[in-house]
Amino acid sequence: MTEIPKPTVQAFLVCDQVIEDSLTKKKSLIGIFTHLQAASFPFQHQQMGLYFCLTDTEGLYHFDIDLIYLNTEQLVCRATLPNIEIGDRLQISDFGINIPLLIFPAPGRYEFRLRMEGHLIAQKDFNVMPAPRSDTSATEPSA
Question: Among candidates 135, 110, 140, which has minimal Cα distance to 14?
Fold first, then answer.
């Protein structure tokens, strides 16, 4: 069995949305983040974007993306991409996907794991934390 060449991952980013220009195919990453704040848990996030950029690989590949709750190693979701063909090992290939409606069970550290043909090639972690509470019960000092 032939060894699958491990690509060079030039970027793996998490954001609110990836937009691709239909003419130029350039990608815009909207709202890149390292943490999210939630009013309560479980927390529903309407959409999350992922961007990754690869080089040093060619052929037809199968990609999976897992979201893991690191505090318990729980699989939160798995996205399977359509097979992707990369024509030239010297080519720089970039990809943007949007994942609708993710549910985060609890505050803590989460990680996206990018797998190509079952092999882990990139990881990106971020925190989901409770939003700071505004203390509405505080009274103003009297004059």
Answer: 110
* Per-residue pLDDT reduced to its tens digit, 67-120: 999 999 999 999 999 998 988 889 899 999 999 999 999 999 999 999 999 999
**CA-wise closest residue to 111 among 65, 79, 57, 43:** 65
Amino acid code (one letter) for 118: G
For the chain, counts of helices (H) and of strands (E): 0, 12
Please count the other Cβ atoms lying within 10 Å of the Cβ belonging to residue 77. 14
Interacting residues of 84 by C-beta distance below 8 A, sequence separation 6+: 60, 61, 63, 93, 95
* Residue carrying the six token digits 């550290």: 109
pTM metric for this prediction:
0.85
Closest listed residue to residue 29, CA positions, set 54, 42, 45, 47: 47
Handedness of CA 41, 69, 93, 10 (dihedral sign): positive
Structure tokens at 114: 């990018």
3-state secondary structure of 21: coil
Q: What CA–CA distance (Å, rounded) separates 67 from 123? A: 10
The whole-chain average pLDDT of the chain stands at 90
